[in-house]
Amino acid sequence: MATVCSPHTISRAAVSSSSVKYSPSQSQLQFRSHFPNRRHDSSSLHITAPNPRAATKGRVLCSQNPNPNPTPTRRPDYVPNRISDPNYVRIFDTTLRDGEQSPGASLTSKEKLDIARQLAKLGVDIIEAGFPAASKDDFEAVKTIAKEVGNFVDKDGYVPVICGLSRCNEKDIKTAWEAVKYAKRPRIHTFIATSPIHMEHKLRKTKEQVIEIARSMVSYARSLGCEDVEFSPEDAGRSEKEFLYQILGEVITAGATTLNIPDTVGITVPNEFGQLIADIKANTPGIDNVIISTHCQNDLGLSTANTLAGASRGARQVEVTINGIGERAGNASLEEVVMTLNCRGEQVFGGLYTGINPKHIYITSKMVSEYTGMHVQPHKAIVGSNAFAHESGIHQDGMLKDKRTYEIISPEDIGYDRSNEAGIVLGKLSGRHAVKKQLEQLGYELDDVQLETVFWRFKGVAEQKKRVTDADLRALVSDEVFQPEVVWKLHDLQVTCGTLGLSTATVKLIDADGREHIACSVGTGPVDSAYKAVDLIVKEPVTLVEYSMNGVTEGIDAIATTRVVIRVENSDMVAGEISQRTFSGIGAGMDIVVSSVKAYIGALNKMLGFKERFPQEIPPESAERTPVSA
Description:
The chain is an alpha/beta fold. It is built from 16 helices and 18 strands. The protein has an eight-stranded parallel β-barrel with strand order 4-5-6-7-8-9-10-11, surrounded by eight helices. A four-stranded antiparallel sheet has the order 1-15-14-13. The longest helix has 22 residues, at 592-613. The two termini are 20 Å apart.
């Protein structure tokens, strides 16, 4: 038996205040990346990187850098098929397209817009906003980004190119154009496979047929009025070189402006991939009239190295993602590629540089991690939590004497403030001013209402632990900020568990109209029983496919951050396959069951919001859950 008491709706007056075990803040924060001169409602939260500077050729001061004060260089004017400065490398960010293909990484349209705005602040040259033909939601998201982000020109004349991906067929290409054409600088990116295994088993087409399709579809894209067309020979890393030279020459003649060379399965090694770029540059007719690009997958852990090898041999556009997220093992990491060029560009790469403002790297990484629900591994280069941490006594001794002994990059260079440089220790006696100051140092700017909300959450934590760390503050802000629009909100939660019987949970939720709903259930553990009680109220059958929990800090009084992923079967057909749409949620709290329930409700809210906009994409299905014992 799953139900102990039946779910029912009650008025607020019917519940005594003494029954409240958990009462989250009544005000909900809205997250929005700061975008200059854009209108925001008064409840918007702005996140800014500490000490921002212009997105110019600002080089990081590595300990080996012989030139400690490099001269800033202005970003070259954008022309689709050429770059006036031969040392400039365009950054093509595909976080919103390839990155979202990561299992469990599901983004709402609003989240995609927020990330696109932050990518513009970061200074990426091209934003691949999505695959417009994949679904109505993707189309609308790309269209919105093209209108909102693709038309904001800063004081230096910078505006990102907005790109849409398409297969080599007229329907995809027309759909992509209809989505991106509103941008000041629109681009269509079309692709077709060129490796023997793909042509034989997937496409079932001859070389001649593939060449004709590629040539005619690039020509079709140009005929729509798009002057910026990128072409990718999918699985170029396993394609025959002579065939690559031939098909690339044909699409150049048809009007392609950028040729992207993807190592789709991550099979190549750096010297091999670098030689491929060099051979294409030397043997493809008309290659001087286009930009060569790289797109390296990370199946062997070589995506960043391969990307840099390609740039060193002539590629002047690199396709990357924030945190390296993407299909399977992911893509080349933007932060790794950019910081390598910033750090070693003068000595090793002949002066190659980018237009990225590294001060915004950390906050962008954090945003993508929170929105996708994909945690960054602690030892991840540049943005991992251990990237600037030192535990060895020998290392600590060197750091205390001179930070350059063990750090080639300062954390401030990427917009990350190391724990409490100002010496402020936050605790239960700290006031609003101290909390506000520390939040500002972490890159958050809150209005008075938002500060009040976070402050009282902070006081609740500070009453239970001696010191509130920067990581605790980030978790509290994330729990209030990085949440979807509220459909259901947790009001009360009471659980009973142990070895004497089944775990029991009673849950009170508040719906969007302010009505209260109560249900109780039993389960294999407190989390499982609480989730079942939530299901009795929400009545939305889903499958729990992932559940994870991390302690934000050390100790028994640490804040717990929980991430869940739920799945809804999706009948959307893309490339002949049935996709399964997933939605992630995060929650934070000192009570692990409360944290778990908040994460689950967050995922449900995200799913319900999507379902309300596109009900035809989420058909009814039978409920299924993997029991969670905690």
